[in-house]
Structures are given as structure tokens and as C-alpha cells.
Here is the input.
Amino acid sequence: MDISRYDDFRASVRSGFSARTQQAVDEALAWAAERLGGELRYDGSPMLDHAVAVASIVISEVGLGRNSAVASILHDVVRLAHKRLSATEFLALTDEIRARFGEEVVGITVGLANISALRLKVAKEQADNFRDLIVSYSEDPRVILIKLADRLEVMRSLDIFPREKRRKKSWEAMNLYAQIAHKLGLYSIKSELEDIALKYLEPKDYEHIVAKLEESADERRAFIARFLVPVEERLKKLGIKYHIKSRTKSIFSIWTKMQKQHVPFEGVYDIFALRIIIDCPREEEKQLCWTAYSVVTDFYTPNPKRMRDWISIPKSNGYESLHTTVSAEGRWVEVQIRTERMDAVAERGIAAHWRYKGVNQGAQTSEMWLGRLRELMEDTTHSLAQRFDAKPASGEIFVFTPNGDLRKLPEGAALLDFAFDIHTSLGATCVGGKVNGRPSSIRDVLHNGDIVEIQTSKNQTPKADWLSVVVTSKARNKIKSFLREEQAKHTRMGREELERKLKNWKMALTIDEAVAYLGKYFKLRLGTEVYALIATQKVDFGSIKEILARHLSGEAAEERRAAAAEAERQKTYASRESAAPQDALIIDDDISKIQYKLARCCNPIKGDDVFGFVTINSGITIHRTDCPNARRMRESYPYRVIEARWRQSALGAFRVTIRIVAADTTGMANHITETISRELKLNIRSINFDAASGGCVSGTVSVEVPGSGVVDTLIHSIMRIKGVQRAYRIN
Here is the structure.
């Protein structure tokens, strides 16, 4: 293919970049043309046309440099190779790209290929996860910027695609890519993506708004001219250099407002905005912007509720501007005041910070804004997942079901975690599965973007050693719950069988004494373990009869006396040989945890002073020493109480409930959630507030904490919030 087809693009590169960049771009064009020779788009044009158009957007509209332009030109070559070639052939291709164009270009193109390989499912509830996933693939921030340019070019060419693809790509553009563009400050790209998407998703609404805008265009221009007369006269008198842009609200924004407010086109009052753009040195920016603001408000009455000052404190993505809405001739007009530099940032995002008015364009400066963009992307991932139980994006992976549903799991999660995340019954009967079409065991660790299929067997049940496999709290809790139920069932079955046999054998022995002796004989700590041996048929009744017969015959008189004393002292299924502190029950996250559970009445957490209480059918429950039921249990059943303590190294998440009484002020709940989730980095599991007397609100917030040491910090932080009167732990 003759690359002279792309002479306009080459000329734009030549005018803005070095000879070295021009040479790299020409080499990339020739190399890509050779490999994409027979590849065509839906309208029959060469596939390379798309890649060159993306590179043009990347250079002129996003403001990236040489490596990004080269990667854009090559991205379709790598995408198709990723899909069609074997692993060995694909590695050979990337090695060739590395040798010709460098390591950075390889990293960017592979990142783009990974995103293209995602099977996005059109579902609103999945949008947050998919946006997180797209950003997570962009370790180099240029990947996400080029992907946005790629999607913009696709949307501009959407007419060439089949109808079903138009709708799917429009949905993705509106719900995924436009949201990321917004967070990165690429407002013009965001608006264009949304407007084109609306054109294909809601064509009637789109055409209606376009027609209405055309109808009112002349009247709007006349009104703007009248509005600006006194403002421009004063600005010129003050000697301020400026120019004015009139910006009509995007079609998508108008449509959204009509939908949300249930109003016709005429009911959307801020159809357009006026932008006063001042040309001045950086040190005079703030002063002159506020001067222009005072000029506008001298002539027109501002709406104080619509004032936005992003000059004193810019947005996190670098956006700076003064916004006010003023009343003129009975209608509202939005006025934006900013400088040339601020306008460049607003139009082209964070890249314009470092590429405005001759700022050094070297590698170091490029690294500065890429570093800032990387920070922004990390923040974007957090804010896109606005759910109480969302964890930070670092340390997360995104995994697909075979039909395209997306699941978010912690890094290190195994196939078994995924099975339990889908459904408890799927996890409980999981025997393995397939990852990306290859057979995998329940222990195999999953990775970002894996497609996972679960295989089950009706004969499979959770095992104690599964606790060493899983990392998610859901899987651990479900496995422990199942094991506790199994233990209770074995206890019941084992006891019933042993009672029946003792009656048949007509032995002069109580069941408690028999269990105590058998526990001594088999060196078991708990009576429940004896019952489990019987229920699971790990010891036959012939052996049990022989052991108990020897015991009764006097052959083991001393053991019999010890067993009787033990049975009398404990009267339970669980036993311990000493009350010494070193023999206390150690509470940790080990497999042994299946022998106990945390009491609901007092909800103990790591660090609380606790004791164990042996129940009849459910093993041991752990209570706080200040539990409301503690005194009754110690006085009525002293032989069931055992000492317990937390292992220092124990890990896990405990739920604690804090009651809060606070002044009924706007945003109080938001302040509380911000303090807990943002400042303390704790997960909120539930929050509930109701109006109380005296202009107050009262409610509870349930928070996951690693131990009791954090609770004091949590309560102290909540008490520091202005308006909070009381905060204390209730569970």
C-alpha cells in the first residue's frame, strides 16, 4: 500500500514534531501497511485508515507525542495478531515491534489489544465494573487516552457499521468511555461521544433537539448580541484582552435534563453558555477573572446557588474556570470566565498543562503530566465504584463468566473464590473448572480478564482444607458455616447412635462418662470430636464396645475414675484437661476456627476480652467478658465456661456497629461516610439514620474493622465531625 495516501497526516506530524518523529511515523506506516494490506473496514476502505485517523486524534486533539502516534498506527496489527496468532507467533511479532519501535510502543499496543479483547456486556449494572476493568488494563496512562481516541474515531465512522454494532458501540461510548473522558478532563471528547451515541440510541429524540436548536438559532444569536453589548464595552474600557465564545449545551446534556426534569425542550433554561476567555500572564489570571466576573454581575443579577469557583480550588483533573448564572430579559444565562491557558486545559484535558504556549516538550515534562494522569486514573477507579463495599482498585482483578458477566475479586483469588462469588451452592459443589478454555483445579489463582467456567458434582461438599485455598470473606464464611452445620449434624447422629448402643449393650455407664473416657482414649479434646468419629464411621462399634468393656471390667480402673471425674466436672461434649491460661482456646483464622463461632449477642472482635461457652449442639461460642449474658452463663454453667484469647497474628474482618447522635444538618451522613471510607479506609456494610427529637438525627453505622484497636480511632474520628454529639459502640 502506498503511504502517500496519508500525506495530510504526515504533513501535520512534520509541522509539529521533529524529523526523528516523522521518520518513526513513516516507518510505522510502511510496516503497518505491509501487515494490514488485505484488511478492510465495513465500507471497503483499508483498515489502516482507521489507525491513521486515531493517530491524528491522538496528536491533534489529545496532545500526545511520538510513541503514542506510532502505537496508534500499529494497534490494529497487534489487535488482530492477539486474536489470530499462537502465543509463540505473537511473542515473535512483539519482539519485532520492540526492536523497531521500542519497549514503550509494545506496552501500549498490548494494553490496547487486551482492552479490545474484552467481551463487554450491555448492562447498566455492569458499567462501573467494566470502567474499572478498562482503566486497570492501562498501566501506562497513554493506553486509556489512545483507547478514547480509538473509540472517538469509531463513533465518527459509525455509519459504516452494521445496525447491531452501532447500538452496542453507542452504548459502550455513552456508559463507559464518555465517563472516563469526563474524569480525565477531556470534555470535548466526552460530549462528542455522548452526542453521537444518542443519535443512534435515541434517534427521534436526537433529531427533535437538533431541529429545536436550529429553529431557535437566530433568536439566540440576537439575544447574545444584546446581552454582550454592555459587558464588552466595560471590558474594553478596562483594557482587558479577551475574546468570547458562545457554546450551545451538548445535545446529550439537553436530552438528559429533559429526561430528569420531565420538561420539554423549552423548559431547559441554560441551552447555551457564554465563555469570556482572557489573554493575560499567569500571575494576573486570578485577578482579571474576578474583574470580569464583577463586570458581568454589575449589569446582570447572579443566581448565588449557581456560582462555581474552580479558580481558587481547581478540579482534581486540572479544570479551572469561574461559572455563574445570571438573569437577563427574564431568562437565565450561564457565563464561564477563564484564561487562554485554562481554556486549553478544559478543551484538551490534563495534557494541556504541559503543552501550552511553548512549555518544554521534552521527555521529562511529558513524564510529569503522564504521572499526574496516572494519579488521576487511580482516583477515577475509586470514584467510579461508588459502593459501600467497594475496595481500592489496587489489588483487584476482574473476571468474566462464560456469558460475559463481570465479577470483581481480590488479587490472589482462586477458582473456588469465583465459584462462591457466583452462588453458594456452586461453590459448595465445585470440583474444578476451565479458565480461558483450559482445565483448572479449584486452587488455581485467577488473573485479570480470565473467562472462568465452573464444573460441579452433586457428591462434592466443602472440605476443611478449602479454607487454605480461598481468600474472599464470602467463601471463607460459607465454608465455615457448612463445616459447623456438618459438625452439629455429626454430633447429633453420633450421640444418638452411641446412646442406642449403650442401651443395647446394657452397660452400667452414662453417656457423658462413656464420651469422656473415649475422648481420653483417642486423645481428643472435645466430645464433639468423639461423636464425629462415630458418625463418619472412622471407628467401628466393635472397637468402642471392647474399649468400654475393658474400662468397666476394672482393667482401666484408674482411667475410669478420671473419666467419671471429668464427666462430672464438665457435663458437656467439649473437654479440656486444665484451666491453666496456656491451655486456653486460641481464636485465630485457622482451620480450628470451625470448632467455634462468635456470639451474636455481643459480637466480639479481635482484641476484646473474651471467653468460650460450650453449647449442646453448636460447639463453642465466643462471648465478650462484658456480654449481657456473661454473668448468667458463669453462675449457672461454670463447667461449660472455658478461657479463650485471640492469637496476636490473627487476620480477618469483624463487623462493629456504632450508634451516632448528631445535629440534623445537610450532608451529615455524607461527612460520616467520607470519614469512615475515605480517611480511615474502612468498609461500611450498612448505614441507617432517622430523625430524632431536638433537631437531631440518630442512627447506626456498621463497619468492618480488623480488631478492637481500630474501634477507638473510629469513634474518635466520628466525634471530630462538626455536629456529632455522641458516638459509641453498641455491638
Remarks:
- DSSP finds 27 helices and 20 strands in the chain.
- The first strand starts at residue 242 and ends at 248.
- The domain at 3-186 is CATH 1.10.3210.10 (Hypothetical protein af1432).
